[in-house]
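Model it.
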Amino acid sequence: MTIPTYIINLKSRTDRKEHCLNEFSGREEFCTTIVEACIHQYGNVGLWNSIKKIILELSAPDNDLILICEDDHLFTDDYSMEILKKAIAEAIALEADILSGGVSWFEDAVQASDLLFQVKKFSGTQFLIIFRKFFPLILEATFTKDDIADGKMASLSDRIFFINPFISVQKEFGYSDATAFNNMFRRVERLFVKSAARARICNSIRRFYNSMPSGSEAKDSTTLQNVNIPVYIINLPERTDRREHILQQFEGKTEFNITMIDACKHEIGAYGLWQSIRKAVSVAIENDDDVMIICEDDHEFSNYYTGEMLLRNILKAHMLGCDYLSGGSGKFDYAVPVSDNLFWANHFLSTQFIILYRKFFQTIIDAPFDETVIGDIKISQMTRNKMILFPYISHQKNFGYSDVTPSQNSNSGIVQEMFNHASERLKKMQQTHFLYSAFTNQKPDPVKAMS
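Modeled.
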């Protein structure tokens, strides 16, 4: 296989041209052509026009794919012809529109195989394999001075993948012709290092949980009927509106055993909440609980809640070694699906409904803290074994005020917007997980895929 390769280069950037030709020197798997970049007062528009020029004027009609490189592309030590061919074979099997050799940033990536991540948002256009079926969308897209090439491509497709480990990064030249804010010294280099590290973490998390024995899960609802979960509800006695609300939430739900915890008062609300959480955990230790749920009094069950769903996932998370399980979060950074309804994430926001396991109780009690403590961040930092349940079974009810974070969460609707946004992200990742789970367990034949 010889890949038609087009290197975009401004005629005046001879240093970049020399660098990029040197990168491809001796690599017979590529057939390289230097393409004089389209000049535009906005570098991002010039780059997009250059990509369109390659597709429209230079690529041969029988090319099923082409490789477009910017002249700052740099092969990593992980590059090999065999790895690239395997990645292309898998990308074809997955009906990819774009295959990237490496990204400087990404959001909501889900592994489709050991080698490929599917990604919704990304940055980095230095090494892009573009498949023919995606050509028309690029050519027909409207592109303005406010757009960027990678962002525009991401908006046009949900079949974008990158190779892990990265086989391509960007060489630092100390300037960028396409993206002005990348002119900061070593900024791009640091972005790629951080992005590659994140991809490695996601991959290791996936491998870790996939390697764990699944254990014997309950097969029917009768197995779970007699389970009774201790719930500790944190409430300031004077907040009678919240107390009434939270008791209504649990009314008739016999799977729970309710204990009210008088919240610890403090002029710093977040500090008082942390003291209240520790108070609840202390009671759970005294009661010899194996698992506990801590609820704030603004917790509200979602329409997805069922006792069976919750109990099954509490057991599943326990079998996977979980310390801390969230019933719903207003924010997370990046996440990895570890089962159909459980996601590992690097941190969670919100503590309105959290499940803690016995092995984690003493860790919370022994953890040092001061008046700067923020409960959700604190718990997230205390363990790597944390998960979130999706679809969310819990949201925060808007009372128009917050005793914990008055400056941020008193604005009408802001918490609900955060929950909705985070939930939508997880929904798309879950759909991607379902889509590629079969592929993850059943690799395609690379030779057949390439034929």
